[in-house]
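hey so u asked for the seq, here:
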Amino acid sequence: MDKAVIDVIREKEQLPDSMSDSEIAREYKGTYTAARAAISLEHKPLDQVLADAMAKVLPFMRKRK
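ran it, structure tokens below
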């Protein structure tokens, strides 16, 4: 299991830092939680995709921070 996926699982499940990466990988391997964590690394939320597309089409409508 990738380190990035383990980090996402640790954050989402609020696991203690004392739990090693290998323990997390062993416990969560092949689970729905691991699949969701892996997918969340690759995909942007839909509202972010729409905002990026609108910013390209209509640059004057960007939100100012």
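The chain has a mean pLDDT of 83. Residues 3-61 form one domain.
lmk if thats what u needed
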